[in-house]
Amino acid sequence: MTATKGLEGIVATTSSVSSIVDGVLTYRGYNIDDLAEHASFEEVAYLLWFGKLPTKAELSSLLSDLSDYASIPEALVSQIKLYPKDLNTMAALRSAVSALALYDESANDMSREANVKKTIKLQAQLPTIVAAIARIREGKEPIAPLKNVSIAHNFLYMLTGKEPAEIAVKALDKALVLHADHELNASTFAARVTVATLSDIYSGVTSAIGALKGPLHGGANEAVMVMLSEINGKDDVDRYIQNKLDNKVKIMGFGHRVYKNGDPRAKHLQKMSYELGQMNGDTTLYDMSVRIEELVVSQKGLKPNVDFYSASVYTMLGIARDLFTPIFAISRVSGWTAHILEQYEDNRLIRPRAEYTGPVHQKYVAISSRI
Ligand SMILES: CC(=O)SCCNC(=O)CCNC(=O)[C@H](O)C(C)(C)COP(=O)(O)OP(=O)(O)OC[C@H]1O[C@@H](n2cnc3c(N)ncnc32)[C@H](O)[C@@H]1OP(=O)(O)O
Ligand SMILES: O=C([O-])CC(=O)C(=O)O
Asked: 349 CB contacts (<8 Å, ≥6 apart)?
């Protein structure tokens, strides 16, 4: 038995949810460029869950379910109020989603029907939970979700209590489309491993949130913003990046396990970053990002991934840095749950082997004789 570090190149499952072939990302066979240009996030979520684009009637029924399920239990709000104010938002989200299972009578009902309902509930409730965490940690009361608006619209509204600008809703909606699914990324794999034991959907999503939190995965978007805020304007980019590269420090938002010629989602976020900068009359973050890209591409041959330009996009939308990764979760829960449903459909326990590298033939030594 020989291990492959990080399971690189190992095909661990079959899936019909999304694919990456020759650098092209598709959801259920639809190219991400096409979806980013034309589809709403809710249409994409429907596509991921049910394998086809919704008709008008199907979409309107989904929107109505999402609206009906968007509130969260009062007891959960009370729990969030007990979290420390200087919380880590992803840790808070992980805890809150785990707790959500306690308030769902059907949490352990493993029928397809119950799991589809929980899928839609999780999608509806995650934005409400994230907005509640964001407000409560600032000492504010959470804001109840609006009825009959998109997830992007509702989330921005629940953060501030103000009607969001149409351009902000459109930008966030597109970002949600771009983040919705990504084949067997680490958090999706974590979700599939968890539910393959026939554990419940909340356990799967809680595992996934834990995996997404790390800076080598979803946490990189926040780390990109930390980097941008440490750089003193465009003229300071070269000094800062050179110093990191000379010291072999990774530049967050660059590189990818699967894409070696660039992440197809990055160009959409780059364009949004440019457009939002133009609209706000300040392209500093965009300009800095472009210069960072030039340096990292020329010196390391590494291209930006989905996390790189999303940092400047979210900042220009007025969103706090520590909400970037939770926003990733708001989108990716659509993909996680699509994979969980797929796993349940044709399940087998996921249990690979490890190549043992420790000592052998050890003899037990009584504690009195140990040194
Ligand atoms: C949504 C997402 O999850 S997208 C990914 C988000 N993560 C990041 O942006 C974090 C920064 N990037 C990385 O850490 C990596 O590129 C990963 C984790 C995304 C992919 O990692 P892997 O396929 O395991 O590549 P690995 O980390 O082994 O890197 C291979 C080589 O490239 C280098 N490298 C990889 N990424 C970077 C980077 N961002 N900056 C500088 N060097 C890098 C490594 O140092 C390593 O060099 P070495 O061979 O000289 O030691
Ligand atoms: O696929 C990966 O390894 C990481 C990624 O880009 C994602 O999850 O969107």
From this structure: 196, 197
How many Å apart are CA 220 and CA 187, to the nearest integer?
13
Q: Please tell me if the CB atom of residue 253 comes closer than 6 angstroms to any atom of ligand 1.
A: yes
Specify the DSSP element, H or E, that contains 18.
Answer: strand 18-21
The tens digit of pLDDT for each residue in 31-63 reads 999 999 999 999 999 999 999 999 999 999 999
Q: Is the pLDDT of residue 190 over 90?
A: yes
**How far away, in angstroms, is 217 Cα from ligand 2 center?**
7
Helices (H), 84-150: 89-100, 112-136
Give pLDDT, residue 212: 98
Judge whether residue 1 has pLDDT over 90. Answer: no
Residue 27, SS3 per DSSP = strand
Cα 365 to Cα 367: distance, rounded to the nearest angstrom:
6
Ligand 2 atom closest to the CA of 179, numbered from 1 = 9
CA distance 333 to 32: 17
Alpha carbon 307 to chain centroid distance?
10
Query: Distance between CA atoms of 304 and 244, rounded to whole angstroms?
Result: 16
If you average pLDDT over every residue of the chain, what do you get? 98
Residue identified by tokens 């660039």 is 262
Strands in 30-31's sheet, in edge-to-edge order, are 18-21, 24-27, 30-31
Find the mean pLDDT for residues 93-114: 98
Best substitution site from 225, 250, 257, 306 to test ligand 1's pocket, by max atoms within 8 Å of Cβ? 250
